[in-house]
Design goal:
Elements: H1 2-32, E1 64-68, H2 100-105, H3 107-113, E2 114-116, H4 127-135, E3 141-145, H5 148-151, H6 162-179, E4 184-187, H7 193-200, H8 204-210, H9 216-219, H10 227-252, E5 257-259, H11 263-266, H12 284-299
Parallel strand pairs: 1-2, 1-3, 3-4, 4-5
Helix pairs in contact: 4-6, 6-10
Length: 303
């Protein structure tokens, strides 16, 4: 009887040992393999990468509208004191320029799907109205070049204030966004007006045309180098730089807006890039350079 009892106890202990070992074995599988995720390293199962988000900026828009001033109208590029939109850097069809629209859309499509709403003499205060006309076409890209006429006034005191310039540009952007929230915007910087003066003053003909009223705050009394004339030109130049800061800051607030980074301002226009009628506005060659800067900015990959 006692011997049988001892045998039962041994069997019970053996069963308990087997159960414990099994439990530990299961726990070990859960901790280092089995149903648990594989550890990193050799043999680890790689997770499938998440799909990349669709870029906000489309480098291939299918229609273009332009707003701005005389530069975008091709003023003085083909004939004296005359618009020549055919050579516009933004929307022109000229083979000598290969405008932004032509480079993006092709020549045939550009003729049908690009529109130039810029006006010679326009200032930033005119941009909201131009933008309102542009949105009626529902363009996928709006090209903006404005601000030179805000600095090119009869006197430096008549120049558009920086605050007003900002408010007008913000209104233009609101006008666009309220109608077309996904339309992209390319913004060109205001050219270096002082450099244009320094290049153009070498032409006797250019200086005669300047007397007709082209940018008097910078170009007036073109040969004067006294302290007053120097201060006047520096004042205009500083205002242009302030305008470019505004363009950059306002554009940066909109995820579908690209500023040229100051490329137009920094471009060193030479006599070949200036109109040979007024030696101030871009020539056909100058328009082609502006088109190249715009195309490079619009088609740049996102960082």
């Amino acid at each position: 009887m006692e011997q049988a009892t001892r045998r039962r106890r041994r069997r019970s202990r053996a069963v308990l040992a087997l159960v414990t070992a099994a439990a530990l074995g299961v726990a070990g599988c859960d901790a280092a393999g089995g149903g648990a995720p594989a550890p990193s390293g050799t043999g680890a199962k790689k997770t499938r990468p998440s799909p990349k988000p669709t870029p906000v900026w489309d480098t291939s828009p299918e229609s273009v509208a332009a707003v701005g001033d005389s530069i975008t109208r091709g003023f003085d590029a083909c004939a004296v004191l005359t618009d020549c939109p055919e050579v516009s850097w933004a929307t022109g069809g000229s083979e000598e320029v290969d405008s932004l629209a032509v480079r993006l859309l092709g020549r045939a499509e550009a003729a049908e799907r690009s529109w130039n709403h810029s006006v010679t003499g326009a200032r930033m205060a005119d941009l909201p109205g131009q933008m309102a006309r542009a949105v009626r076409r529902s363009p996928e890209l709006v090209a903006v070049m404005a601000g030179a006429n805000d600095a090119c006034r009869e006197t430096t005191s008549a120049m558009t204030s920086v605050d007003d310039f900002r408010a007008d540009f913000q209104e233009a952007m609101r006008t666009l966004r309220e109608a077309l929230p996904k339309t992209q915007v390319y913004v060109a910087s205001v050219p270096n007006l002082k450099r244009l003066w320094s290049q153009g003053r070498t032409s006797a003909l250019g200086k005669q045309v300047w007397k007709l009223g082209i940018c008097p705050s910078m170009l007036g009394d073109a040969d004067a180098l006294d302290a007053a004339a120097t201060l006047r030109r520096e004042t205009v130049q500083n205002r242009v730089e302030d305008y470019n800061e505004v363009l950059e800051e306002v554009c940066a607030e909109d995820r579908r807006c690209r500023f040229d980074g100051g490329a137009v301002y920094e471009y060193r226009f030479g006599t070949d890039q200036l109109s040979h009628w007024d030696w101030f506005h871009p020539s056909v060659d100058g328009q082609a350079e502006l088109a190249e800067i715009a195309y490079r900015t619009v088609t740049a990959k996102q960082p």
